[in-house]
Amino acid sequence: xxxxxxxxxxxxxxxxxxxxxxxxxxxxxxxxxxxxxxxxxxxxxxxxxxxxxxxxxxxxxxxxxxxxxxxxxxxxxxxxxxxxxxxxxxxxxxxxxxxxxxxxxxxxxxxxxxxxxxxxxxxxxxxxxxxxxxxxxxxxxxxxxxxxxxxxxxxxxxxxxxxxxxxxxxxxxxxxxxxxxxxxxxxxxxxxxxxxxxxxxxxxxxxxxxxxxxxxxxxxxxxxxxxxxxxxxxxxxxxxxxxxxxxxxxxxxxxxxxxxxxxxxxxxxxxxxxxxxxxxxxxxxxxxxxxxxxxxxxxxxxxxxxxxxxxxxxxxxxxxxxxxxxxxxxxxxxxxxxxxxxxxxxxxxxxxxxxxxxxxxxxxxxxxxxxxxxxxxxxxxxxxxxxxxxxxxxxxxxxxxxxxxxxxxxxxxxxxxxxxxxxxxxxxxxxxxxxxxxxxxxxxxxxxxxxxxxxxxxxxxxxxxxxxxxxxxxxxxxxx
Length: 480
Fold this sequence. Notes:
Helices cover 42% and strands 8% of the residues. Strand 3 and strand 4 form a beta hairpin. It is elongated. Helix 1 packs antiparallel against helix 2 (44-52) and helix 4 packs across helix 6 (249-261). The chain has 14 helices and ten strands. The strands form four sheets. The protein has a four-stranded antiparallel β-sheet with strand order 7-8-9-10, with no helix packed on it. Strands 1-5 form a two-stranded antiparallel sheet. Strands 2-6 form a two-stranded antiparallel sheet. The chain has three domains: 2-112, no CATH class; 117-395, Hypothetical protein af1432 (Orthogonal Bundle); 403-474, no CATH class. It has helices at 7-15, 44-52, 115-151, 157-173, 191-223, 249-261, 271-274, 282-302, 308-316, 340-355, 366-377, 382-395, 462-465, 471-474; strands at 2-6, 19-21, 26-27, 33-35, 57-61, 67-69, 403-405, 411-416, 421-424, 440-441. It is of the alpha+beta class.
């Protein structure tokens, strides 16, 4: 039996000469183990450290040899119904577990007892931080586009650089930034602003992963780890240190800035053309295409920005990724000439555009988008294959926000691609669950086959399932 017990009560028990054994591992919000499940606690200091970590109560699982003992070694019965004042009673009676205050809607316990709880807490904390970063970035891109429109092309580049640097710092330190960023699945308001931020987030994650992966591959090749290469300057097979990097930090900063500004030329295209609900005419499509190679480039020139990385991204992010790819521009550009970071921008651009709602289309389930992009670009070009690898590893086969079917017929929401971490929201007949279930990962040994993802069934678009989503998931995503 698992009961939550006040940390103050546990301290008093130990102070009176008793002992405590939780039967469960106790972690702090950072994921650091504070107390092993098998340790008999006979020191007040151990419990005071736990309390200093902001933990007011911890579970005691009597079903796995956990328990509380007095100074004579007698087992203390845990009474969860009575609040005990230790000034009036001894340590042979136990007080109540901490009760959450009214209106508390957290899905996390006061003390963390397993890896999933730690991951959920991490997601919740980083979502709050991401929302702040997202808000600042959105304010920045709004100001950029407004200034360009009002001045005919001028904007404060230094201010943008500072804001993007702050956003990128979060994206690089966050293990999986896609869990934390708001995705416009049901609303197309402010699409251009959100799109700029999302492409920056997605592209930055991909280019960082590609940089590490591809650089290591080249370093291994240079050291002869992957093939035999004759090196006349190397004696006695002395190993060379890693010295190759695809992109250096200063370049990565410029690349992220370019991702953020890739569509600034669209502010020069008429709103009625950009937001047209029907099919664009040939003339209208030609006008939209000018946002990159003409309007965007002119804005850079007007602001005297000569950064070649940013210019390449703005100019060529609709260029071909392989020979003979259709509907690419500007015309006459060979995919061989396109820098790798620009190809990454194009993938990020396509992914976010397809997974976001537009005035003329619904958002597509991210799983379908990843699958389609992989089928479109796989095995077309060796370098592109490395980029695709970085893309899929960054986004995940089951990106956060995806809707999946389980083998037992339930539908689940993907909280995180690693695992993946799933939160069911229907029963086997697709009826919305009334009570919030526990999330789970499908890569654990405990997961039954019935609760693995059913890849045989077509995944639905977000709009199709919105009506049956429970409140606890609607609170995660952005409502329409």
